[in-house]
Amino acid sequence: MDSSALQTLTAAFRAWLSARQYSDSTVRNYLVDINKYISFTDDHLLFDESTLKNYFESVSSHPNYPRTLASLKKFFQFALDQKLIEKNSFKSALRSASRTGQACLATTTESLIPSFQTYLESKKKTPATIKNYINDIQQFINWAENQSET
């Protein structure tokens, strides 16, 4: 896609959002996010699932990550509505990136629980309190993992 085609695409996305009565600030923020995504991609891979997954991973630690996801979700819905794509690869790319993120989370929680236990011991918490805190955290982690599978 050349730059004029990308400008036409973003203008059409702006019009699509406005027609759905999104606020001016939401439209502006979504366009900022989409332009960042476009800058990240090779133009011909704009709607490619692996490109999208790589982008998710590159911005996942940014404070505006939830907004970025919302922006991309709407952009891919727009592309589907306009028949620019046949399949919305946003959902499958997000699921794939989430599985990768869960592997990182598992590694992190494995190291955090012993650190938290050491912290509690340094604060002179009783063994029963420490055991209960660790048990509660583990139950929450198990619950969260089950929620992400459904």
TrEMBL record:
One of its GO terms (biological process) is DNA integration. Residues 4-80, 107-150 form the Core-binding (CB) domain. Signal peptide: none annotated. It holds the Pfam family Phage_int_SAM_1. It comes from Candidatus Shapirobacteria bacterium RIFOXYB1_FULL_38_38. Keywords: DNA-binding. SUPFAM superfamilies: lambda integrase-like, N-terminal domain (SSF47823). This is Core-binding (CB) domain-containing protein.
